[in-house]
Design brief:
- The complex is a heterodimer.
- By secondary structure, chain A is an alpha+beta fold.
- Chain A contains 15 helices and ten strands.
- Chain A has two domains: 96 residues, no CATH class; 284 residues, Cytochrome-c3 Hydrogenase, chain B.
- In chain A, the strands form three sheets. A five-stranded antiparallel sheet of chain A has the order 3-2-1-9-10.
- In chain A, helix 7 packs across helix 15.
- The longest helix of chain A is centred in the first third of the chain and has 30 residues.
- Chain B is of the alpha/beta class.
- Chain B has a single domain, classed as Beta Polymerase, domain 2, CATH 3.30.460.80.
- In chain B, the strands form two sheets. Chain B has a five-stranded mixed sheet with strand order 1-2-5-4-3. In chain B, strands 6-7 form a two-stranded parallel ribbon.
- In chain B, a hairpin with a 2-residue loop joins strand 1 and strand 2.
- Chain B is globular, with a radius of gyration of 17 Å.
- Classes of the chains: A alpha+beta, B alpha/beta.
- Chains A and B meet through helix 8, strand 6, strand 7 and strand 8 of A and strand 3, strand 4, strand 5 and helix 3 of B.
Chain lengths: 396, 157
């Protein structure tokens, strides 16, 4: 039987990390996959060399709209690593950093949950999850002034203080979100259709994760027990109680479970932070950055975000290397997709939670016949939803 | 194995190739080695000691090109960065993609942005730059001028 190549792309230029996939299929089965990136490369590393240390924090904030506090946090920690023991970030600033990062994690995971639900034909989940995400964005707006691009991180501390009088109201709203999450968790873990649809799909083994250096929920769902928040505690993560969530199976179901349970952990952390937040200064007032090099890495919603900064003693970095988690997670598609079917491709691609933008349009090109058929993203999602519906009717 | 044991093992095993060893802070270690031994060192750190490969970062300084390979020991919470210095005339080093699959992309990136040649790389194509980017122009080199007409404007944008 002749092989068929399915290119997935081109992209929506407004999204952050556009990606291009070519699926080589034999009938329904995917036999090979080629991934290509860089269609929207903005040269932020180069741009950062032209900005001062203070301005670069705003530049890296624009790398991603969803993780818009992860990159600045990793960056300022890299600069603080250059400063070494000269820079002691005040306690209150550490708590503010933790709260911003964890609120971001909850909203990012809720966004993923909604999209995954939509791809599978569970549109109620989509609506519900995004409704709750809106609540989190409102909290972020109330605390930082912005729904996105919060501009909170600064070398030596944070830029703005939180209003402590708003904390009781936020804790109450967080408790409401926990109730919603419990409903979702029950709905996902007990639904036989989802079990049939997601278990054993897109399996990434532990060894694959190690070979590719996969990160975050993608690797934790395959039994790799690492989390920068615990392994190299930053901000206030060593001052509160929480657990690293891992699963052993490595399939899409395990990834969903990791993300859902992580949201409970995050909300638990947030409530502890709000209750324990000390008062005091929020900024160490750093003046100059000496000669040297520093590394900052943090756990973003999608995995470890890694920044390397080199300073030559002027007010600008001479080199600023940014490594986003998806850069390491994307090549794992080669292992996860091969052997699966086209109708599962959407959910496997969504499974690692790339800044999602890949399936804008799909062309099915049959090499032997030379005919051309264009699938839109809608068609791909329809294929995926139809499969769920079939399983549902079969009564699993 | 604790942190000191790991560092002593690395020091003992590669004492001939290590040019510089500095513990900048309790969680950051920088080791400079001879570029020709990169594969042996990476094999030892990644396969035998079980460190996680973070990424690599290339840098153009006045006198040489420099690559830092960053490895994290997650259980112990510290980062070992292996530094190699390559000459400006012939920036070439062995690829480590055959040892670590996750290094394939970052080597492609350094190849197109800084112009370092990775010998033995399975697929040294462009990763980020577009196909019509002129050959031999490396945007992260210090002599790159973005106002250089030949470099960018000729592309008809």
């Amino acid at each position: 039987m002749g092989k068929t190549i399915i290119p997935i792309g081109p992209y929506h230029p407004l999204q952050e990390e556009p990606e291009f996939f070519q699926l080589v299929v034999d009938g329904e089965k995917i036999v090979d996959v080629f991934v290509n990136v860089g269609y929207n490369h903005r040269g932020i590393e180069k741009l950062s060399e032209l900005k001062t240390f203070d301005q670069s924090a705003f530049v890296v904030e624009r790398i991603c709209g969803i993780c818009s506090t992860s990159h600045p946090l990793a960056y300022v920690m890299a600069v603080e690593d250059i400063l070494g023991s000269d820079c002691v970030v005040p306690e209150r600033a550490l708590y503010i950093r933790t709260i911003t990062a964890e609120l971001e994690r909850v909203h990012s995971h809720l966004l993923w949950l909604g999209l995954a639900g939509h791809f599978l034909g569970y549109n109620t989940v989509y609506m519900w999850a995004w409704k709750q995400r809106e609540e989190i964005l409102d909290m972020l707006e109330g605390l930082s002034g912005n729904r996105n691009n919060y501009a909170m991180m600064k070398v030596g501390g944070v830029r703005r203080d939180f209003d402590s009088s708003s904390f009781p109201g936020i804790i109450k709203r967080l408790n409401d979100i926990v109730k919603f999450l419990q409903t979702i968790k029950k709905a996902v873990l007990d639904d036989p259709v989802l079990h049939a649809r997601l278990k054993g799909i897109g399996v990434l083994t532990k060894q694959d994760c190690i070979d590719y250096g996969a990160l975050g929920p993608t690797s934790r769902a395959s039994g790799v027990d690492n989390d920068v928040r615990r392994d190299e505690p930053y901000a206030a993560y060593d001052r509160i109680n929480w657990n690293v969530v891992t699963q052993q199976e490595g399939d899409v179901f395990a990834k969903a479970v990791v993300r859902i349970v992580e949201m409970f952990e995050s909300i638990n952390m947030l409530i502890q932070c709000f209750n324990r937040m000390p008062s005091g200064p929020i900024d160490a007032n750093v003046k100059d950055v000496p000669v040297g090099e520093g590394i900052g890495h943090i756990e973003a919603p999608r995995g470890e975000c890694f920044h390397y900064v080199k300073s030559d003693g002027t007010n600008r970095p001479v080199r600023h290397k940014v490594r986003a988690p998806t850069f390491m997670n994307l090549p794992t598609y080669k292992e996860a997709l091969i052997g699966e079917t086209i109708s599962d491709a959407t959910i496997i691609l969504a499974g690692i939670d790339p800044c999602y933008c890949c399936t804008e349009r799909v062309t099915v090109l049959d090499c032997c016949k030379g005919n051309k058929e264009i699938y839109s993203q809608k068609d791909l999602i329809r294929l995926s939803q139809e499969k769920t519906e079939k399983l549902r009717q079969r009564g699993c | 194995m604790n942190k000191d044991a790991i560092l002593n093992n690395i020091k003992g095993k590669f004492k001939d190739t290590i040019k510089d060893f500095s513990e900048k802070s309790p969680r950051r270690v920088y080791i400079e080695i001879d570029p020709k031994d990169i594969q042996d060192v990476v094999k030892y750190i990644f396969l035998d000691l079980g460190a996680r490969f973070n990424t690599a970062s290339g840098l153009d300084t006045r006198s040489h090109f420099e690559i830092l390979y960053h490895f994290t020991f997650d259980k112990l919470g510290f980062i070992v960065s292996i530094r190699v210095k390559l000459s400006k005339d012939n920036p070439k080093i062995h690829s480590i993609a055959s040892i670590i699959k996750g290094a394939e992309w970052i080597e492609r990136e350094m190849n197109e942005l800084i112009g370092i040649d990775f010998a033995g790389h399975p697929n040294l194509k462009r990763l980020l730059l577009s196909d019509d980017w002129p050959k031999g122009v490396y945007p992260l080199r210090s002599d790159y001028k973005e106002w250089d007409k030949d470099a960018i404007r000729d592309r008809g944008i």
